[in-house]
């Protein structure tokens, strides 16, 4: 059993920054990939950024150059540094973790970018 706890969401002005964090806890496991997904009200959940255990990253085209995803394998955490934020939201950002063939989701943290 794996549980994910997210933090760092909030309200920020356009051009500002936020840093989302996700910590995985539970029994012994090896995380193959971790990522962040965005879901706006009434819309499908979509990938924002992901990172594999070996450090390969994948970003949505709209956030390349502005967002940076990183992980600490020893601590089982993943961070999403979001810079130069554009007007958006509110939307929920969900942490996603893949362990072998199992996928886990966090409860979500809300992000709003507005003036």
Task: Please explain how this structure is put together.
The protein has 115 residues and is an all-beta fold. 0% of the residues lie in helices and 59% in strands. It has no helices and eleven strands. The strands form two sheets. Strands 2, 4, 5, 6, 9, 10 and 11 form a seven-stranded mixed sheet that branches.
Distance N terminus to C terminus?
A: 40 Å
> So how many helices?
0
Low-confidence stretches: none
Number of β-strand runs: 11
Mean pLDDT, as a whole number? Answer: 94
The general outline is globular
Order of helices and strands: EEEEEEEEEEE
Structural class from helices and strands?
A: mainly beta
- Binned, the helix content reads under 10%
Cα Rg: 14 Å
The portion of residues forming beta strands comes to over 45%
Largest sheet: number of strands, sense, barrel closure: 7 strands, mixed
Write a concise synopsis of the structure shown:
By secondary structure, this protein is mainly beta.
Topology:
Layout: E1 2-7, E2 10-12, E3 18-26, E4 33-39, E5 46-52, E6 57-59, E7 67-72, E8 77-82, E9 88-99, E10 102-105, E11 109-113
Parallel strand pairs: 2-11
Antiparallel strand pairs: 1-3, 3-8, 4-5, 4-9, 5-6, 7-8, 9-10, 9-11
């Amino acid at each position: 059993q794996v549980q994910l706890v997210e933090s760092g969401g909030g309200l920020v002005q356009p051009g500002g920054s936020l840093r989302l964090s996700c910590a995985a806890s539970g029994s012994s496991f090896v995380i193959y990939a971790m990522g962040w997904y965005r879901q706006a009200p009434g819309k499908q959940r979509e990938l924002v950024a992901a990172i594999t255990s070996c450090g390969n990253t994948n970003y949505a085209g709209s956030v390349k150059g502005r967002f940076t995803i990183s992980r600490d394998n020893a601590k089982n955490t993943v961070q999403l540094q979001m810079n130069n934020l554009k007007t958006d939201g509110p939307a929920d950002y969900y942490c996603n973790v893949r362990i072998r063939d199992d996928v886990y989701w966090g409860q979500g943290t809300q992000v709003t970018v507005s003036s």
